[in-house]
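One record is given unchanged without comment:
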Amino acid sequence: MRRSDNLIKIITLIVFVALAAYIGYYLYYMQANPLKTVLAIAYTSDDCATTEGYAVRNETVLYGCGGSVSVLADDGEKISAGEAVAVEYKSSGAADRSSDETALRLRIDQLETMLKSMDGGSIRASAYDSVTELSSAVGNGDLENLDRLLAEIDSFIFSDMSDYSEDGIKSEIDSCREQLDRLNGTVYSDTVYISPSRPGTFSSSADGLETVTPESLENLTVSGYFDLFKPSSPDKNAVGKMCYGTTWYYVTAISDEIASRLSRGGYATMRFKKNYDATVQMKVDYISAEDDGMRVAVFSTNKYLPDVVSIRSLSADIVFSTYSGIRVPKEAVHIDDEGVKYVYLLSGVQSRRADLEILCDLGDYYIVSPLNSGVFHDGSEIIIKANGLHDGKVVQSGMGI
């Protein structure tokens, strides 16, 4: 046993010495022949400035009389003059009728969805679609159709579809519609329909800033901007608002440096985010005089009004330029005597020169455009560090990063 133990110790010592020698040689080799590389990556970067501001429209508030209100129109819906956008119930009986009406509408939606799934549709697929739509609505804070979605889910998941026949569903739909027609066909003194006097786009959101009109933005100063958009509360009798025309405005206070990059009468790319996700080309209508390093900027567009009709506060990036190219570490870039910038690429066991144009400075990196994309492209191996580099030099491949 003792001879066997000694043999194991000798073998262990030999392995340890060999490993130490290998590590020592590797470290010496790496020090004497440093080669550090990185993969070229396609990259896009925006030259932009972030702003916080407000949407302004030509809008008026629609008022009720303090009763229970049921909104009939959807946000962003085009409404004709005299068309009802809401109904107000002034008594408990009227409120009960409103509740009955809502229940009938939900039941009709539920039955029609069930009928659709029977007519060549899949109950499982319909249930999945309803759950997905509900999840999306809750995630986006859009609770307008919450009751309908819950009713659909109830019909697919918690109801026994075997208890229903196609004829039975159609018969119940007809019955519900008859009851709804009777409710809507009777004129009640305690029920008032609210309608606009002229056509426009409806929003159920009134925030108290409807008095801020496009005319309010003319010759607006920096101090006037902050006074204009002080927090406000809507009238308790407001049931919504109407927005007229197709043009809306985005007004914001920006630094003098950012404003200097805008041209009045020109156009700017506005990339909205948070509560409105869209990129919109807007005209630069107005830039105020400088006040304590700040200026007011007003942008306008005649597109997408229905999308922003219920939004007041907006966050946006003003995008001045977009650069697309290859991201390169600054330490890999060389400059020759004629001022031409280039990098060395690892091609097999040789280094190859690739000239480039710098598009954008990102701090530790450049975004560059290769002058010969056939040589230098996304996925090329860029040499960051090596001894005595020149075009065509044979280099020993170390560990790329």
In short: The longest strand covers residues 41-63. Residues 87 and 314 are 31 Å apart (CA to CA).
